[in-house]
Design a protein that fits this description.
InterPro entries: DSBA-like_thioredoxin_dom (IPR001853), GST_Kappa/NadH (IPR051924), GSTK (IPR044088), HCCAis_GSTk (IPR014440), Thioredoxin-like_sf (IPR036249). One of its GO terms (cellular component) is mitochondrion. Pfam families: DSBA. Strand 1, helix 1 and strand 2 form a beta-alpha-beta unit. The protein has one domain: Glutaredoxin (3-Layer(aba) Sandwich), CATH 3.40.30.10. Helix 7 packs across helix 8. The protein has a four-stranded mixed beta sheet with strand order 2-1-3-4. By secondary structure, the chain is α+β, with helices and mostly antiparallel strands. It is globular, with a radius of gyration of 17 Å. It is built from ten helices and four strands, in the order E-H-E-H-H-H-H-H-H-H-H-E-E-H.
């Protein structure tokens, strides 16, 4: 870690609205807390399958609560998260594997764009309710500031074995730390990883960091 900063890894998938909330809070706090924030795009579908987890909205009462909770959280954290009951069905029908590979490819070669690109994907999916395909990837990347030439290379790399393996490795790492869903923040303190699941445990993360 640089300058005695604590490394905090954030594992996330843009299909997860709670990941967006956790992402925005940690992106803000990386300038306030003495942390080295490392963004780790992972694949939520792979984590759910490996751990036998189910989407929380599969339980109707929990789904009702989540709708209210996300609206409150979005307002509190000033994240433009829009959600309706239909979104739960939309999530279940959507695979973000292609999007997370594209984000992974960007992180590997253009790491300075990882934060704005991820944010643009969430904005499309959770503010504008747009489904993902390769045309959307290009639009999102342009919006995040990437040039057409770089975007073309990223699109070519998205389905390469190197990128596929990197996303799989990152997803497996999250599972190894104990993740069963996303977001998962891992703080490395005195050589020991501490896992915090969800976007509502960030004050505990702050506490363990001494912040």
């Amino acid at each position: 870690a640089s300058m005695g900063r604590t490394v905090v890894e954030l594992f996330y998938d843009v299909v997860s609205p709670y990941s967006w909330l956790g992402f925005e809070v940690l992106c803000r706090y990386q300038h306030i807390w003495n942390i080295d924030l490392r963004l780790r795009p992972a694949f939520l579908g792979g984590i759910m399958k490996a751990t036998g987890n189910q989407p929380p909205a599969m339980l109707p009462k929990r789904g009702e609560y989540l709708l209210k909770d996300m609206k409150r959280m979005g307002k509190y954290y000033q994240v433009p998260l829009r959600i309706s009951e239909d979104d739960f069905q939309r999530i279940l029908r959507t695979s973000t594997l292609g999007a997370m590979r594209f984000i992974t490819a960007t992180g590997m070669t253009q790491p300075q764009y990882l934060e704005p690109l991820s944010r643009e994907f969430w904005t499309r999916f959770w503010s504008q309710v747009i489904l993902f395909n390769y045309i959307i990837f290009s639009q999102v990347a342009r919006q995040a500031g990437l040039s057409s030439e770089v975007i073309q290379k990223l699109l070519e790399n998205t389905s390469s074995p190197t990128v596929k393996n990197r996303l799989k490795e990152t997803t497996d790492e999250a599972i190894k730390y104990g993740a069963f869903g996303l977001p998962a923040a891992v703080a490395h303190i005195n050589g020991e990883p501490h896992l915090f699941f969800g976007s509502d445990r960030l004050e505990l993360l702050g506490s363990i960091l001494g912040e």
